[in-house]
Every structure is written in structure tokens, then in C-alpha cells.
Amino acid sequence: MEWLNQLIIKTMPLVPKGIIKRISRRYIAGENLEDAVRVTKELMKIGGMSTIDVLGEFVTNKEMALHEKSMCSKVLEAIKENDIESYLSVKPTSLGLGIDFDFAYSNIKDLVDKASKLGIFVRLDMENSPYTDKTFQIFKKLREEGYQNVGIVIQAYLYRSENDIKALADYKPSIRLCKGIYREPASIAIQDREGVRNNYKKLLKFILDLKLYPAIATHDEVLINYALDLISEYKLKKDDYEFQMLLGVREERRNELLRMGHRLRVYVPFGKDWYGYSTRRLKENPDIAGYIFKALFIRN
Question: Which of 80, 81, 191, 285 has the most neighbouring CB atoms within 10 Å?
């Protein structure tokens, strides 16, 4: 079936958006904030947590960036009002990073400040390489202004990531460690699966050696088992780490990790800007061919 996976991935732009939308239901809570709150409450019933994300990225005008900021602010209010185990994830480009650094920083700082007053954490998502340095710059600037309720993301497929962790170590950050999903050139990013896996292992161990808090964001069974071995080896307590997974991906394994007593947080996106997020999720999912193939012939 590998050939079918690759064929459908290459022809993804030709797949009708209606089919992508139908499949995307497994990855997205819904179009409204209430949907994200509902999903989080359902996760809490089985001991899980969430991070809520307003869908949208690469915003090109300030009006839209301010709209995204308003939606993120509403997420913070909903987390507080509903007393749910969640925090806010933000994509810097959705708040104007592709338009103007100072404008984006002001928007993000306002959100982090509001979150701080509400006792809520904020994670700066990491996007593709044109924004890597700027995102780290925003994180450092926020921390230097006294905000402790903000974390960062490290992508294991980038060659630079070990040096980035070293540069961040003094800030004692909470680090979400993921593989990375954006298409990047071979000059800056590892291209083969095993190479990315090996670097992920190396970086996770490095994070633990530095006594930083890792959010172990992976669905890869090899990496999950490696992380479990490290947790045992380092004698980590429950509050020293957490696993993270995407909504709709490997739910049985997610539930198993929760039953084992591990902290686990699910990335819960919502909103109307579902197409870009969904196609990236589908491209990285090994079951992509099956989902799309069925959707082409089954109406529901």
C-alpha cells in the first residue's frame, strides 16, 4: 500500500475539498470554541489534558491578525470559565509575524500577559524555517520581560536543534519536542525517517540531562518506547514530563498511556481554517490512502 500512499499524497491538491473536510473531522474539534471545550472535557474524563489551537497561519494583513488575537483571547477566557485542563497554543504567523515583528510581538505579549493573570500557560508553536529565529527571539524577549508562563517547540528534523536547546537552557523552558512537518531543504533538515528518529532520541536525552521539562510530542511507537525507557532510567516523577498527541491520531495508544498513569496532552484545534492543517496531518499519517480512498466512494 506504500505506493498508494505516495500517489495520493502527490495528488492531494486534486482531491476535492469536500472529501478533505469529511476526513478532517477526526483531526479537528469543530468550527467553534465550544467544540474545543467539549473535546477537552471528554479528555478530562479519561485523565487527559489538552492544548487548544485556533486554526490559522501565515496571515498577511493586520486586520486578520487582530481577529486571530481576539479568538485566542476568547480561548483563554473559556479555559478559565470552564475550569478545564488546558492551555493555549499560538502560531506566531497567525498573529502577524509574517507582517511585522513588533506588531506580532505586541499581539503575543498581550495574550501571554492575559494568560499570566489567569494562571494559564501559552505555547509558541514552531512553524517553517523562515520564522524559526524570530520565534525564538519572541520567546526570549517574553522571558526577559518576566513572563514565566510561555513555552517553545523544538523540531527534531532540523540540524540546528541541539544548538537551539543549548541557547535556551538558561531560560529553563518547557520544550515540546516534535519531529517537524514542514517541507524543508536537505541543507537544513534531516530527510530520512530513521535519521529524524535518531536525532529525536538524542535531543530528548539532552533535554532530560539539562533537567528541562519535555513535552514528548510523537505518535511514533519507536520513540514512545524510547521515551518510556528514559522515564524509567531517569526515575522521572509524573510531573517531570508529559506526552503529547494530536487529536484523532493513535487514540488507543493515547488511552493506554493514560491508563499507565502518564500525563498526556492532546492538541485540539478548532476553527474554519481547516484545509491547510488537515492536508498536513493527512500527508504525515500512514493511513492517509485508506481514509481518502474510502471517502472517495462512501458518502456520510
Answer: 285
Q: Does residue 59 share a domain with residue 21?
A: no
Q: How does DSSP classify residue 158? A: B
Q: Looking at 125, 254, 265, 273, which residue is catalytic?
A: 125
C-alpha angle with apex 208: 255 to 44, nearest 5 degrees?
25
**How does 69-85 read in b/e, with b if 16+ C-beta sit within 10 Å?**
bebbbebbebbbeeebb
Which 3 state secondary structure label does DSSP give 51? strand
pTM of the model: 0.89
**Rounded Cα–Cα distance for residues 202 and 224 (Å):** 14
176 tagged catalytic:
yes
Has 38 been annotated as catalytic? no
Catalytic residue among 22, 123, 176, 197: 176
Residue 112 domain boundaries: 29-273
pLDDT along the chain (300 residues), means of 10: 58 65 80 96 98 90 97 98 98 96 98 98 97 98 98 98 98 97 94 97 98 97 98 98 95 98 97 70 55 48
Are the C-beta atoms of residues 262 and 25 closer than 8 Å to each other? no
Domain identity same for 155 and 21: no
Letter string b/e over residues 101-121, b meaning 16 or more CB atoms within 10 A of that residue's CB: eeebbebbbebbbbbbeeebb
Same domain assignment for residues 269 and 218: yes
